Amino acid sequence: MDQSFENKRYAPIGVFDSGVGGLTVAREIMRQLPGERIIYFGDTARVPYGSKSKETIIRYSRQIIHFLESKGVKAIVVACNTASAFALEELRPEMKMPIIGVVKPGAKVAAERTYNGRIGVIGTEGTIGSQIYTEMIHRHNPHATVLGKACPLFVPLVEEGWLKDPVTIEVAKRYLSSFRESGIDTLILGCTHYPLLRSMIREVMGEQVELVNPAYETAQELKRLLLQHQLCNDGQEAGTPMYQFYVSDAAEKFKNFANSILPCEIEKARLIHIEE
Ligand code: DGL
């Protein structure tokens, strides 16, 4: 890491996602690191990432990282599972500042918590197809059996606000039925939107299956990383806003969704042209 970043204690954390989903990660950072400022970018013009190619996700992520760097952030959190799966390791060598994704923290905790070594992972087609969770879990627990399942319909259902709707419960039963017979004792919610379906997934899977929320684990990991680099902010600089939000489209819709899940009220999301 570049030495110049060590004086950036008061700078914000850059957080990005394909859209609104990464707000579940921003929310955890707000809860666990209340002294930290955040600049969030949601790529609402180009969502979803989950069905796009690796090359495209790398290109999008690189553009967003350049934007966040131009805003003077001190560290970057790739809040999107798909971007963490496809772009993080490709882009890390280009980075001057610390960068983390959501996959590694979630995989590590699942590998540590399982008793019977059978772990389920749900995510987008991209994340599951990449096998990244399996690879990361095996780094910590080489004998674990990892079963993946793409659940693409969860994303639009969450964005529609159908968190407890009978249709969503039916979809969850269909997606999760194979897991219910597979003997997994741990299930990773490997997509930004899925923590918002947590209580419903718990109902379908039963109390005996531990649900791992990578958003929570990522905020923990971020705390460790900031401590390690002496980049923790214990309070804000006077006059600077704590949280700023940028999107590539549909700013009003983003703002409304954000206000339905964040612990604070946001006044606006600014529109930017990320391709320029
Ligand atoms: N944010 C994405 C993820 O966590 C889900 C939505 C999308 O497909 O873009 O993988």
Small molecules bound = D-glutamic acid
Describe the largest sheet: 6 strands, parallel
The share of residues in extended strands comes to 15-25%
Rounded mean pLDDT score: 95
The backbone outline, from C-alpha atoms, is globular
User: What is the helix fraction of residues, given as a range?
Assistant: 40-55%
What series of H and E elements makes up the topology? EHEHEHHEHEHHEHHEHEHEHE
Structural class: alpha/beta
- The neighbouring-strand order within the major sheet is 4-3-1-2-9-10
Please state the CA-atom Rg, rounded to the nearest Å.
18 Å
DSSP, total strands: 10
Task: List its salient traits.
276 residues, 4-stranded parallel beta sheet, globular, binds D-glutamic acid, alpha/beta
Question: How does this model look, in words?
Answer:
It is built from twelve helices and ten strands. It has 276 residues and is of the alpha/beta class. The strands form two sheets. A six-stranded parallel sheet has the order 4-3-1-2-9-10, with helices on both faces. A four-stranded parallel sheet has the order 6-5-7-8, sandwiched between helices. The longest helix has 17 residues. The radius of gyration is 18 Å and the shape is globular. The model has no long low-confidence stretch (mean pLDDT 95). The structure holds D-glutamic acid. The site of D-glutamic acid has 16 residues, from helix 3.
